[in-house]
Specification:
The complex is a heterodimer.
Chain A lengths: L3 E12 L2 E12 L3 E5 L6 H8 L7 E6 L2 E2 L5 H6 L2 E3 L12 H10 L16 H13 L15 H14 L4 E5 L7 H14 L4 E5 L3 H7 L2 E6 L2 E6 L1 H6 L1 H21 L1
Parallel strand pairs in A: 3-8, 3-9, 6-7, 7-8
Antiparallel strand pairs in A: 1-2, 1-4, 4-5, 9-10
Chain B lengths: L1 H7 L9 H20 L3 H27 L7 H19 L10 H20 L4 H21 L1 H4 L5 E2 L16 H23 L2 H11 L1 H5 L5 H27 L1 E2 L6 H14 L6 H19 L3 H15 L3 H14 L7 H30 L6 E4 L2 E4 L3 H46 L1
Antiparallel strand pairs in B: 1-2, 3-4
The chains are: A alpha/beta, B mainly alpha.
């Protein structure tokens, strides 16, 4: 029997009179990797913002492990075991790489707002931080300020902060955006490693990444999930081809074939 | 190799390193021997005020430098601390309260904490500009209250007290200024230590995170508002202690201690000292007392000079004096400081010429506006000027222009030189990173 990690039931979101998400429904099983694809303006990032609590939804239910989370603050949702990354790196720029990651492990290890303990004495927090730094391969850059990292390193740190707290549901918003082909390939294997055994949702434009990483693909068009299935089925789905893949995928495949 | 590392990241001390013990030992030593070196009664009161100012500026910087919160009304917490301290002191004097005088600042600290908890609950709901606006409003509110309740705030004359109260402990009455100084010094040392310790705790680090990127903090499990609120209360506690010590020092508290001018002074001097590094506000606090006590004696135009210095600092060295020190220590660590000595001397020399010219003109204007009854003659740096003669104005103008021209030339040369040295340092760092 599979259990559901994250469920969206007829979620809607309007900005003013414009309805961006128009009744999206989705059910992601525990341990599953799901890629959300769709044309520009389909509402992929908005959907992530609704799930992670950045925006409140207009109507509908969002459930995390069977518990309603819509209407909660982002930090409350995070405490329930959901973490997300951002499309544009969202780091603590004036802190070192090490401090960035350590900040992200503190709450889940129960240190909360403690001002009676020294950070240096928190063995478990420091060990976990080291572990994450090795996973994202930034252990040699630990003392560098986040703002002085290269672009690819900042993307890696972005992922590191997201997974550091040990959340079981991970949302990655275009993790490979702006990376070169070789960087992307390395990065996809890194994402595989650090999210092993976790439920993963990712928004992605690179079809290579999508088909390589995802167990199932959700296609979002005009704020609705028009298909949600294994990659082969999605590829064959006529509605998807018509709405989206027809043009983009053909181009991508043509480009692949041309190499 | 270790000393190079220390010079590069000196504020990131590892536990139990020698550097840290050395710095803190030196700090305690300075606090201890300062009154033995400067023995006049003026310097004694100034040293006492510096101790108080150090606590206040460090507490202010918990918000400004560490939390990115710009408070325009922080004198409220030190000021209310002062008032509660003086009332507590008077209760002790009247024999209605058996409390050692040395603990009165702690009472003030608790009231600072209480009011920070009450008022901060509102202010810390917001961050950024709205936060600054609300603190400004709260500051005005408390200032208005101070005029409305003369019973508590003492009206125009303020509330006075006598710190020689209750039973002396081991013969210490706090009557002589030196005894009070050592009480202040002890509080300064302990409070500095506690505030430094705060920066090494989970809450202290999350406060930095909230400063850098409040949005991300919300997605790693922390409520940014809660972090700000707790930090605000911690700051209020230390502000209150500073206020209590100030009350003991002056033995009189007037309404201006909660006023906007005092709040502005905390902001200005914390910034001058440097909000980026923990020790910056200590420098700022010392400067604050020097400016308020000495500079104001020296010239009537002291606020104008202060404003000019602040402006130049914001434009050219936004990290304050402490960051200038750290930048040069970094160069010293790479053995590059020697090359800059000549440039520094030239900069200082030409800046002095500017100051001479501008100062002469400013003093002449002030003299004409405020002391016209004393005749047009005035003394400026040993020279006698005539504020109504063309010669004095022409001379001062010439000195100012010469100074400006020379300074600009030196500054350009220095900027080139500085850039070159920074490049060399970067290369050196890369080389070391590659070889390690």
């Amino acid at each position: 029997m599979t259990t559901v990690a994250l469920e969206l039931r007829d979620v809607r979101k309007s900005f003013g009179k414009t309805e961006i998400i128009r009744g999206a429904s989705l059910s992601v099983n525990v341990g599953e990797r799901v890629a959300i694809i769709g044309p520009n303006g389909a509402g992929k990032s908005t959907l992530f913002n609704l799930i992670s609590g950045r925006f409140g939804s207009t109507s509908g239910d969002i459930l995390l492990n069977g518990r309603k989370i819509d209407g909660l603050e982002p930090f409350q949702i995070n405490r329930l075991g959901l973490a997300r990354s951002f499309q544009v790196s969202n780091l603590f720029t004036r802190l070192s790489v090490f401090e960035n990651v350590r900040c992200a492990v503190l709450w889940q290890l129960g240190y909360k707002y403690a001002f009676w303990r020294f950070l240096a004495d928190l063995r478990d927090a420091n060990d976990r931080t080291e572990e994450v730094l090795e996973m994202i391969k930034l252990d040699r850059r630990r003392d560098v300020l986040a703002m002085n990292l290269t672009y690819a390193e900042q993307r890696a740190l972005e992922i590191g902060i997201t997974i550091a707290g040990g959340s079981q549901v991970i949302l990655l918003d275009e993790p490979t955006a702006g990376m070169s082909k070789s960087e992307t390939r390395r990065f996809v294997s890194l994402i595989r490693e650090v999210t092993a055994g976790k439920t993963l949702l990712t928004v992605e434009h690179d079809m290579g990444v999508v088909f390589g990483l995802a167990d199932r693909i959700a296609v979002l068009v005009y704020g609705q999930v028009i298909a949600f299935d294994v990659p082969e089925a999605v590829r064959a789905n006529p509605r998807v081809q018509e709405a989206y893949l027809g043009s983009v995928l053909a181009d991508a495949q043509a480009a692949e074939a041309g190499h | 190799m270790t000393h190079v590392h220390a010079a590069r990241k000196p504020y990131h001390f590892k536990p139990f390193n020698i550097g840290r013990w050395l710095v803190w030992g030196l700090y305690a030593l300075v606090l201890f021997v300062a009154p033995l070196l400067f023995t006049s009664s003026l310097s004694m009161t100034m040293l006492s005020q510096m101790g108080v100012a150090i606590i206040a500026c460090l507490a202010f910087n918990m918000l400004l430098g560490q939390g990115g919160m710009l408070s325009f009304g922080h004198a409220v917490y030190s000021g209310l601390g002062s008032f509660f301290a003086i009332h507590t002191l008077n209760l002790v004097s009247a024999g209605q309260l058996a409390l050692p005088v040395s603990l009165v600042p702690l009472v003030a600290g608790l009231f600072g904490l209480l009011f920070a908890a009450l008022l901060g609950y509102v202010t810390t709901k917001k961050a950024g500009t709205p936060f600054a606006m609300i603190t400004l409003g709260v500051g005005e509110l408390v200032w208005a209250m101070s005029l409305m309740f003369p019973g508590f705030f003492g009206g125009e004359g303020g509330i006075s007290g006598n710190r020689v109260a209750g039973q002396p402990f081991l013969g210490i009455t706090f009557g002589p200024q030196s005894q009070l100084y050592y009480l202040i010094a002890a509080y300064t040392l302990v409070c500095t230590g506690l505030m430094f310790a705060f920066t090494r705790t989970p809450l202290g680090r999350m406060l930095n995170a909230v400063r850098d990127n409040p949005e991300r903090v919300a997605f790693i499990g922390y409520s940014t508002r809660h972090v700000r609120y707790l930090a605000f209360m911690a700051s209020g506690l230390f502000m209150g202690i500073a206020g209590g010590l100030a009350a003991l020092n002056f033995e009189i508290v007037t309404a201006e201690v909660v006023g906007a001018q005092r709040s502005g002074a905390y902001l200005l001097f914390t910034f001058l000292g440097g909000a980026v590094f923990f020790f910056g506000p200590i420098i700022g606090a010392v400067l604050m007392v020097l400016a308020l006590v000495l500079l104001s004696e020296l010239t009537q135009a002291w606020l104008l000079y202060l404003g000019l210095v602040f402006m130049f600092m914001v434009m050219y060295a936004p990290g304050g004096i402490s960051s200038l020190i750290m930048m040069n220590l970094r160069l010293a660590g790479f053995g590059k400081l020697r090359a800059l000595w000549a440039s520094y001397l030239a900069l200082a020399g030409t800046a002095f010429v500017i100051l001479l010219g501008a100062g002469a003109m400013i003093e002449m204007i002030y003299h004409l506006q405020l002391d016209a009854a004393l005749g047009p003659k005035l003394k400026f740096m040993g020279a006698s000027l005539d504020a109504k003669s063309f010669d004095s104005w022409f001379g001062a103008g010439l000195v100012l222009l010469t100074g400006l021209a020379l300074f600009e030339l030196t500054r350009r040369e220095f900027a080139r030189h500085w850039g070159r040295i920074q490049e060399q340092v970067e290369q050196e760092i890369k080389k070391r990173a590659a070889s390690s």
